[in-house]
Every structure is written in C-alpha cells, then in structure tokens.
Specification:
Chain lengths: 155, 290
C-alpha cells in the first residue's frame, strides 16, 4: 500500500510500486489532464509537481512517491496563478491543438514561482523540457511574458 | 498466466538499504531518469525489471554536501537542482549541470546516477575527471574510496560490488586557490540535448608558470579520454604557450581520441571539435581562477 497526497487529498493505492505515476493518475484517478507524449522524459506533456517541484510523471515509479505531495493540472485549476496563465495563453494565441498545454502550464507556473520576472531566454530555458508541435513556441513565450506582468506580485 | 511482480524495497535508513543489498542483488534506483528510459515498458504496464528494485533517492544520508579541509563531499543522491543551489558547489560544475536536460529532469536526476550510469556522454564526467574526483563506496563491511577513472570501466560498466552503494563524490583540494576550470559541451541545441563532444580543462598557474594542467574529453570514446603523460609535458611551461607546444599537445590527443559515428554525430566531426576546443583552451592569454 502506497500513501501520498494528491491535489491536497490523502490517497492510497495498491497498484504495483513499479507502476508509472502517469498511469496511476490517468487510469486509476482519471486525471487525464496529464498527457503521455514520449514516455521517456523528452516532451514534458506528463509534467506534474512532486513536493512542489516540476517532474515528468512518465519517469516516476509510484514506489518512490510514498509520502509525497503530488499536484496535477486539475489541482491548480482554481488558483489565481492558473487563471492568469489561462488568460495569457489565450490572449497570446499560445494554444493550438492543446496537447502540450497542461504540461506547458505546469512548467510555466514552476518557472514563474522560481523567477517571477524571467527574461525571454530564461523563459525558453524554463520550457526547454516541453515540446510543442503546433505553435513554434513564440506565442508561448509571449504568453508567459504576459503572465509574469499581469501576475506581478502573486508568483 | 500471472506474471511475477518485481519486488521493490524502500527503507527509511541507509543502513537497512545496505543490509538488503548484502542479502540480495538489486537494481538501485536514484532519480530513475536513466533506468526508466532503459526499461521503458509502455502505457499502463508496470516496469519489468531484471532484479528487485531498491529506492535510494529519499535517503537523507546520501543527500549531504559538506566541506572537509580543502575537499568537498557531495552526497550521491543530490539532484542537479539541489547542487545548482548549493554554495559549496564550484561554478564550473554548476555550469556543466545547467547544460543537462531541462528543469524537470534536473529536479530528479542525481550526480551519483550520472556516474554509475557511466554513459560516454555523461555531462558531469569530464569535469569530475579533471577534478580527480574520488568516489566513496559504502557497504555493510565498510567504506572504500576509488578514483573515478578506475571506477568507470566502459559504457554502463562500473566497478561496483553487488552490496555497495555510491555514497559520496569527493572533489579533492577543490578549494585550493588559483585553478581555472571550464566545461564545454557541443550538442544539437542549447538545452535538452545529449553531448556530441564534451571537454573539461583545468589549469593552475603560478607567476605565469603552469603548476598543474588536466584535460578530459567526453563522448569521443567508451569512457572519458585523459592523458597524464601529455599533461605532464606542459608542467613548468610559461603562459602564453608557444605554438610548438600547442601543436604537440594537440597532436598527442589526435592519436588517442578515437570517436565513433552514431545517430548524433560523426567520428570526424567529433574529433575536429574536440581538438578545436583543446586548441582554444591552450591558446588563451590568461586564465582567471574561478
Ligand atoms: C530527457 C532526458 C534528458 C537527459 N539529458 C542528459 C544530459 O543532457 N546530460 C547527461 O549527462 N545526462 C542526461 N540524461 C541522463 C540522466 O538524466 C542522468 O544520467 C542522470 O544523472 C541520472 O541520474 P538518476 O539519479 O536519474 O539515475 P538512475 O536512473 O536512478 O540510475 C542510473 C544508474 O546508476 C545506478 N545508480 C544510481 N545511483 C547509484 C548509487 N548511489 N549507487 C550505486 N548505483 C547507483 C543505477 O542502478 C543505474 O544503473 C537525460 C535523461 C533524460 C530522460
Ligand atoms: S510523456 Fe513524460 S516527458 Fe514525454
Ligand atoms: S499546441 Fe499542439 S502541441 Fe502544443
């Protein structure tokens, strides 16, 4: 039995310890905002927070998250930070097919929490583990830049 | 048919972990960023592993960084992000770490994992070689210390006994003043790329004379390429180096660097870039200690 916190609630599971956190979230908890792209750490579609740190859930066997605090995109939907990112992504035209977006939002939030006033280069570094097949990234960089300005003081 | 599930262990203390390793051969998992890719099983299928799995990433005994006289000791399970924030970690090592993967991987991947994975392209390895890093291996029977160049034997091959854990990476005399140390990585793009060539250079100068100099190349052979013989020939020479000396050193490495072609690059490209990085390092007019 593995116990952990998921989006603020205490949870437990009997799934094998070698199950990927990504599969546990999607299949057992039906949190399908977290996506699978590559399954090997390259694309960031599966990004979640583990103890407030951005991590790729496809690379985490659940045996290692005993006692940890997990947050998925669903867990931040009601926050002010998410609302600002949501608006900024829409305004900047940063969303096309949307597949990469939950992971991008998690990476954006992680970046801004650490560095509330990032330069363009720092923004690109912050999302360097997240692939987007549609936008060409410029609109995403603009979106994060806008979110930094709009949310000044809350990150 | 029901498949047997992989046994997994996660003990609270290092001591218990070492006892288990002494009883049973296990696959040690730190951040898992190499293991999970190597044993990728696909959607919805728990990993299939050749051995029982033992988690060590949470063990606080393996996450300390401290100074002992002039040496720095780094816990094997410190993640890259933790090292980037630690005041004792040398700037050159931080610069190398910044070239590794992307934030999410750096929040999980460990220095110990990079060493034990022993990839020819492991980005911390060239620097650890020029620092003359020593590794502290711990088991139920005690500690032993080995040179990193003796520990790493080939791609994914290290000289570790079944009951041992890499506990600490020791950077000897790194706090001695006056050394200039650099790491250069050439990859496909700035972030999130595996190295085509890595180069680390170390030089200590006293009144324009070279007291100590070391070079290591990554991704151009099965392990890091270093030559104590070539390095010794430069000791005592004055800076800036004469062209003839530079030519001689470059020619020396030209003979011993034997890269391969693979999906990331060609042997010719790798060798050219490696020697250019070396030539550039040797041609500098001055070396500011860092
Ligand atoms: C998307 C992606 C990008 C990457 N980019 C880079 C890059 O740019 N540069 C680079 O160098 N690497 C890169 N890597 C590889 C990897 O992240 C690093 O090698 C990392 O340092 C591995 O650490 P880990 O803790 O995750 O290792 P793990 O996967 O946990 O372990 C790796 C190996 O070391 C053994 N091991 C780990 N710790 C110990 C210990 N303390 N004692 C004994 N054995 C141990 C394990 O048994 C295993 O064989 C990348 C990986 C991914 C997935
Ligand atoms: S699915 Fe995890 S990084 Fe691509
Ligand atoms: S919007 Fe389609 S992958 Fe990014």
């Amino acid at each position: 039995m593995i116990k952990f916190t998921l989006n603020g609630k205490t949870e437990e599971t009997n799934a094998p310890a070698t199950t990927r956190l990504l599969d546990l979230l999607r299949d057992d908890f039906e949190l399908i905002g977290t996506k699978e792209g590559c399954g090997e750490g390259e694309c960031g579609a599966c990004s979640v927070f583990v103890n407030n740190l951005l991590q790729n859930s496809c690379l985490i066997p659940i045996g290692s998250i005993a006692g940890a605090e997990i947050q998925t995109i669903e867990g931040i939907l009601e926050t002010k930070k998410f609302k600002i990112l949501d608006e900024s992504y829409s305004d900047a035209g940063g969303v096309q097919c949307g597949y990469c977006i939950p992971g991008m939002i998690m990476a954006s939030a992680a970046l801004l929490s650490k560095n509330p006033h990032p330069s363009k280069a720092e923004i690109r570094e912050g999302i360097s583990g997240n692939l987007c097949r549609c936008t060409g990234y410029n609109m995403i960089v603009d979106a994060i830049n806008q979110a930094a300005k709009k949310g000044d003081g809350i990150w | 048919m029901v498949e047997k599930m992989t046994a997994t262990y996660r003990f609270d203390r290092l001591e218990q972990t070492l006892s288990q390793l002494n009883r049973e051969d296990c696959l040690i998992m730190a951040g898992g960023t190499d293991i999970m890719v190597l044993h990728k099983s696909g959607r919805g299928v728990p990993l299939k592993l050749p051995k029982p799995l033992i988690f060590i990433d949470h063990l606080s005994e393996l996450k300390q960084v401290f100074q002992n006289h002039k040496d720095i000791h780094i816990g094997a399970c410190c993640t890259y992000s933790e090292l980037l924030e630690h005041p004792l970690i040398p700037v050159s090592l931080k610069n190398a770490i910044k070239t590794i993967a992307a934030p999410a991987i750096r929040n999980r991947g460990t220095l110990g994992g990079n060493i034990c994975n022993a990839s020819p392209a492991g980005d911390t390895l060239p620097l650890l070689y020029v620092y003359n890093a020593k590794l502290l291996l711990r088991s139920v029977t005690g500690d032993r210390i080995v040179e990193i160049s003796d520990f790493i034997q080939g791609p994914r091959r290290v000289q570790r006994y079944q009951n041992e854990i890499l506990a600490e990476i020791i950077l000897p005399s790194v706090l001695e003043e006056g050394a200039y140390v650099v790491f250069e990585k050439v990859g496909n793009r700035n972030a999130d790329a595996i190295a085509k060539v890595g180069f680390a250079g170390y030089i200590r100068i006293n009144e324009a004379r070279i007291e100590d100099v070391r070079f290591a190349f990554g991704a151009v052979g099965p392990t890091m390429v270093r030559s104590i013989d070539i390095e010794r020939k430069l000791v005592g020479k004055t800076i800036p180096l004469a062209d003839a000396d530079i030519v001689q050193v470059v020619a020396g490495f030209d003979k011993i660097i034997r890269p391969i072609d693979d999906q990331r690059s060609t042997a010719t490209y790798r060798k050219t870039v490696a020697l250019n990085l070396l030539r550039y390092f040797l041609s500098m007019k001055q070396y500011q200690a860092n």
